[in-house]
Amino acid sequence: MFARPAFIISGVAAVAALGSYIFWGPPKKKKTADYCPGLVNFGNTCFLNAVLQSWSACPSVSVWLGNFLSRHVSTSTVKKYLAATILKVLRLLNNDGDCELDPFSPGEVLQALRRRGWIISPDEQDSHELFHVLTQTLEEETSRYPSVVSLFDIQALQNPCNKYQPDGVAFIRSQGKLPILPRREMDHPFRGLLASQLECYKCRYRYPVKYDLFDSLSLSFPQKYWGPLTLDQLLRHFICPETVNNVDCPGCAKILKTKDIPKSSFKKKLTIGKLPQCLCIHIQRKQWLNSNVPVKRYDHIAFSEILHMDNYVYMKANKKNLCNRNGLFGGNDDTLDSLRFGTQNQKLMMESAPVNLLRALNYDSSTMNGIFVQPPNSLNMHNIHADENHNGPEIKPRVEFTYKLASVVSHQGNECSGHFVSYRRNPVPCVKDPMGSKWLFTSDENVRKTSFMQVLNSEAYMLFYERV
Fold first, then answer.
1. Confidence (pTM)
2. Which among 36, 46, 58, 200 is annotated as catalytic?
3. Alpha helix (H) residue ranges in 154-246
4. Is it the case that residue 87 has pLDDT exceeding 80?
5. 419 is catalytic
6. Residue 441 forms beta bridges with which residues?
7. 8 Å CB contact between 268 and 244
8. Which of 308, 395, 423, 443 has the greatest number of C-beta atoms within 10 Å?
């Protein structure tokens, strides 16, 4: 369990181990080119080592950290950033650094978290929880929004350095040029968007699409099912619609012509609105029985090296497959229009789809760290262009949402205790294979070669996929 505002590492034993390591240094073991360095375990820090090894096999993480530090951090203050500390460790784990000996100490990462007031309980260490600690802290460090010019600040408004919309763009909504709105410059490569929508079972009224941020997809096992499953089955279970009762329905109120909004049962549909550059999938292996007793699910989850996410993204299907697709529409549909107006108004229904799609794209349509989904070809939106305020997306050719496996975190043990290990790609890739084709098994200081078949047979707890 992780919390603030203090920091604890697994009792006195971990502190003593950290002190002795700093005093005497690491064992003298020569590093070889086809291996990666191991990481020191300070008593009970395997959960950290597994995440760091997994991140080192994800090229987009190192690229993102390097870009942020080079653009926004001066050399005099770089050591204060957790981003710099993690980037240093990731480069060393990829044999890209000055350190020639291993195992390497991740103590600097622990110290950086300590400076930010994180508590790591000595009783509950979890790699997935630590993953979110790291992404949240990095989010705080790298979130930089340009200041908004106040309309009451005449001097600031007259500043010649201000940037405005180009001619012919802003006049649609204004008599003069509009200033460019501030926006986030960089999202971390794990950041994505979930799209959810409520639809009334009675009148088919749909609420506007709601978007929620995610850094990882946590997939649960289907209830009352025990046995081997595939990753695709867990993903389909993740987006499976569910029923939400006692929801206000404006659609039913309009049909009944009443001011009192009646309650109705709604179907909640979930899809992925934006896919990240690096997709982290968490398999929830710890479950609670009806007797409040925790158990661990040992079921094997079959996953593949290549993962296609096309079936799980928002607005993927074409118009002819509208009824069977996983995508979402917003506003009133043809069923409600026919009840209200006595005709099926397909035009209204189709116009509502791109409007809701723009809301997802407006989150940050300039980022290069994510995949922004495209509307169906049948919507015929190819003449829409984006201005600098993200008021409309420039439609790009459709691409497949394909990912390649980069690393796996596995938990060995039961629901109360155990050990985290990782499987990662070899850090010496060739030009034709930038992610590497050989695999390594890492368990703290121990690193050895392994086959890809052993990776596929592992008890996956976290999967890291890179977009290709």
1. 0.73
2. 46
3. 154-157, 231-238
4. yes
5. yes
6. 423, 448
7. yes
8. 423
The reply to whether 446 and 345 lie within a common domain is no
- Nearest one of 373, 49, 59, 358 to 189, comparing CA atoms: 59
Encoded tokens for 391 = 């008021």
Number of domains in the chain: 2
If residue 248 lies in a helix (H) or strand (E), which one and from where to where? strand 242-248
Angstrom distances, CA of residue 290 to CA of 58, 294, 333, 399, 417: 39, 9, 41, 45, 21
**Is the four-CA dihedral 84, 89, 93, 95 of positive or negative sign?**
positive
Tokens of 89: 């460790």
- Residue 264: CB atoms within 10 Å: 20
Say whether pLDDT at 277 is over 90. Answer: yes
Rounded percentage of the chain residues whose pLDDT exceeds 70: 63
| Chain position carrying tokens 């999202």 | 187
What is the domain range of residue 68? 2-143+402-467
What's the count of helices (H) and strands (E) in the chain, helices before strands? 12, 19
Q: Each residue of 166-192: pLDDT tens digit?
A: 655 544 455 555 555 555 567 899 999
- Written as six digits, the tokens of 301 are 């989850």
Query: Is the residue at 351 inside a domain?
Result: yes
Out of 72, 132, 300, 419, the active site residue is 419
Are residues 407 and 372 located together in one domain of the fold? Answer: no
| Residues 262 and 343 placed together within one structural domain of the fold | yes
Rama region for 427: left / alpha / beta (φ>0; ψ in -120 to 50; rest):
alpha
